[in-house]
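writing this on my phone so excuse typos. first protein, seq and then structure
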Amino acid sequence: MKPRKALETIVPYTPGKLKEGAVKLASNENPLGPSPKALERLKSVLPGLSLYPDAAFVRLRQAVAGRLGVAPENLIFGNGSDELLCLAAGTYIEEGDDAVTSQSTFSEYTFATVLFGGHMTYAPLKDGRFDLPALAALTGPRTRIVFLCNPNNPTGTVFSGDELSRFLEKVSRDVLVVLDEAYYEYVGWDEFPRSVELLGAHPNVLILRTFSKIYGLAGLRVGYGIAREEVIRNLSRAKTPFNVNLAAQEAALAALEDDEFVERSVAMNAEGKRYLYREFDRLGLRYYPTEANFVCVHLNRDGTEVFERIMDMGVTIRPLRSFGMADWIRVTVGTPEQNRLFISCLQRVLKG
């Protein structure tokens, strides 16, 4: 049997590394763990796991719609937002079509595009940020999707609402603009796009958000997309039934009501960022100020070597060679104790 030719060029995703017993600051997970309300709900639903989940997501759809101020028909749910990236590519990309994104961003944009026979074109980051004018200039007659990551993974940088509005005016409405806002709840910048409000004027926008980060449900895989009803209908035709399991749906429903946990997570993240900034300044390291729950740090030396030495000391972080940033690392903002341990390990490595 011969696999499809497109698979020959796909580079498998490189996940954050696990090491038994190590503190994991490699994958931008919530260091407080899952939402307590989600954990309580999970205990109560376990006896019902012999049943199929709600394929229509009725309760979760209504709850998220109520939070966002949109109609339930403006939502689609996925097995993490990764699945929604594949649904977008599978819905809109034909063999030989193009997509556009930045260099040094989430690799699954390229994976989804190439999986369906498309070709990805890249614009360089500008000061660690998505260069929206450059991305708009790269779109052409075969462009079907533009993938924007805001805040960007791995740099944590953002673009403003005004910048996004100007970009959308330049891009053809025949191009789907996927706006990945996985870290949306951590953002504190006043000029961050109010992306949901753009849907009325821009029918070609798909916003992606997730329960993996702020709600601490990465292991359950629940993401959702927000778009005009016609986009949701098209994406739904490519979706498998029962794609988000029963436990995940129930945990997401409960987590959505856990405002205290979200506030605590945001506050601890802000405190952790301030501490890490101070320590990086003290160590003379350049970094990107972040609106997410991680910091991207320039080391002026091989990031993989630093990663391996820190891992031997009991902490895992993310080297960024796979993002095209060989002398950078990305570290998740952890608890105060985890942050201090990481800095202690990093300092020892840099002195050695």
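second protein below, same order as before
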Amino acid sequence: MAEEELKQPKVFISYSWSSAHHQEMVKLWADRLTHDGVDVILDIYDLNEGDDKYAFMETMVTDEHVTHVLVVCDSKYTERANAREKGVGAESTIISSEVYKRVKQSKFIPILCEFGDDGEPIAPVFMDARIGINFSTPESVNENWEQLIRLLYSRPLHVKPKKGSVPSYIISDVPLPANEARAKYESLKQAVLQDKKCLRMYREDFTDAVVSYADQLRIKERPSTENYGDKILEDCGKLKVVRNQICDWVLLEAGSTSENELAEEVIGLLEQLRELKTRPLELNVWNERWSDAPSVFVYETFLYIIAALLKARCYHTLHELFTSSYIAPPDRVQRGTELETFSNFYGNADSLQDVLKPGQNLYSPAAELIQMQADRSDISFKDIIQAETLTFMMAILQDVHWYPATLHYAEHYEKLPFFLRAAQHKNFTKLATITGITEVSELRDKLKTKLENMPHYSRTFAFGPDFGLLMNIENLDSVK
């Protein structure tokens, strides 16, 4: 937030001249507040010879332009205030009147300089119930100074989060599977914030809970063909819960974990999620349509992970995800394919065709559902389109198959922020980190050549976006 947008605080300091040392300490605090941009009213600076000190005090306490009154509480101030003695007594009378009239306002802030033998702060009766700031030692002053400044500027460190949407299990007629992942995520979050040494244990607990939840929704017995599409749609809605939890996890660790470690952990989770698309051991027969729900879930979650990493600027991690080989699920290994590319995270669900928009022939039921379920405030559907554009670019460069289904929802002449910014050299280096191609001419030539040799995509996306424009191919690295 720009400095001019902040409401500048104006503060009056009420204190007792209990000693020269105490007065000097208050003066030092006043000077420090001034250096932090606070307009401070202090008697030794603002009360001149001949002024009526009682009128001055009353004006400062009641002035609507004075945003806060710091009441410096020590034993001498408390004694004089409670006895209504001398200047402090008159001043405290005015303050107490204002305090009692405005019970809920926070204009008056106790600055606690002394504590009794019982550990309770020494403060006047009229301030006794108010939460104060501990300034009883030089160490506590330094420790709590930011708290005071944030309070004066109305910029607290801890802000109540925006109220979210009603949990899906409240509005759904169908019960969700037990979900331990939320509790495991909160434990992991605390471990990350506290920089605990056993972070890997918390992370494994979380990822195991995520996979366990999703595994409960796999079809493990021959399903009924009646209302099968509705069943898949219902399961996809339940799986959205862990899609969001995985996205939260990536955003959390992107700000604290090394990119190499984060890449390794995400790759490990993706390998486990990939296995959800395969035949469960309980079934001797298998129809690929029976994995429609986990297929869409893995595809959608992969795009959200890519979008989250772009948002977190984890370009090396993205490079690792796109260029690494993934261990194939056991049933695939038996066919002689032990390692896979990221292309196996793509998924579709033809069973959703008739339940999403009956009577319409959707280009991709999976993409339609992903758009319907794009309800996060921090990662929009446009972010998902951008993530899929990057994924498609990497698929083209590495000669792996990827059908960019969500790009059916991009506008024909749409330009995406990440690729638009890559026109500037300093931002192109981010794309170069992801692709592993540092020379823009090489990257441009490869993309143009391969796009020209993909006529099937041109036919399918005849009324869709221009891939070259989406990727901003012609303008990459054109601005210094």
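The mean pLDDT is 86. thats all i got for now
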